[in-house]
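Dear Dr. V.,

Thank you for agreeing to look over these. As mentioned in my earlier message, I'm a first-year student in the group and I'm still getting used to reading structure tokens, so any feedback on how I've presented them would be very welcome. I ran two proteins. I've put each sequence directly above its structure. The first is here:
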Amino acid sequence: PYFDAVDDSFYRDELYRAVRVAITAAGGAGAAGSGPNWLAAVTDACGDMAAAAMISELAVEPLRVTADPDASYVNTTLAGVQVPVVDGQVRELKSRLQRVNPASANEEYMTLFGELITLEQRLRGLKEKAVGGL
């Protein structure tokens, strides 16, 4: 599933990151069963007591959606998680690119420029997903 493809590096809050790591340690969303057994496996895999408590909170908290959650909901939510991190990567790459002289380091400049174009396309796609593909 898409959830498993979005690793813990995209979670900026430490508790959410710890929950994400615990989900991976429990086999990931793709291997998830249902109900209390899977929640117990995730909680047992969690090394942080506060994050373990958060797992219980998240399990019972109602989702803030008007329709049943589906793949679109997951895609939108996970894209929103990734946007700030990828946006920071774009800013960092632009900063690096500005410090390279294209006349004296053309190969490095072109490599960085290619990476920037790819990363900006990824960011644009994530932003579109984050607003529901509008």
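The second protein is here, in the same arrangement:
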Amino acid sequence: MTLAVRKTDSIRRWPLSSLMKSRFRQDEDGATAIEFALVSTPFIGMMFAILTIAHYFWVGATLQDAVQEAGRQIRVGKVEAAGFTKTEFKDFVCSYLAIPKSNCLDDIAIDVESAESISGLSNDEPDPANEKYDPGEGSDYVLVRAELPITSFNSLFKLFSSTASPSFTLTAVTAFRNEPFN
């Protein structure tokens, strides 16, 4: 008798569970919306990450171009002839960058260092509190360094950072020997 009850119970359950499975297999209402939600979230996140990284590369490339152009102006003696001060030189570099000038002037650290021999130039990082500005004389070796901290406008990078607002430092350097413009 116990055996027969189990048999009838299993027979009874089988059509109901089969009916439920087939019903859910055939019902596709809302499947597209769920698939879109599952696929679009990482896709949009990756797009923002790609745009943020592209922005860093773009600003880094313009910083390098700005430092190269500023170095050319020093090398040929135009900076000395114009009598640029440290602030005017910083303004000149910031005019080439692809970020708002007010942000650049506040954040960028520029060191211009010169020496009669290349071994006389230092390897120190620019210090925003104590920036050096010595474009040198004709035939001097000159090292121009610029550092620009840039914050992320994408909150995805906050997941990988221990600080509230992740900041990256972009650096550009150029070294050359002045032409004998004196």
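From my reading of the second output: Residues 143 and 175 are 4 Å apart (CA to CA). The chain has a mean pLDDT of 82. Does that match how you would interpret it?

Kind regards,
E.
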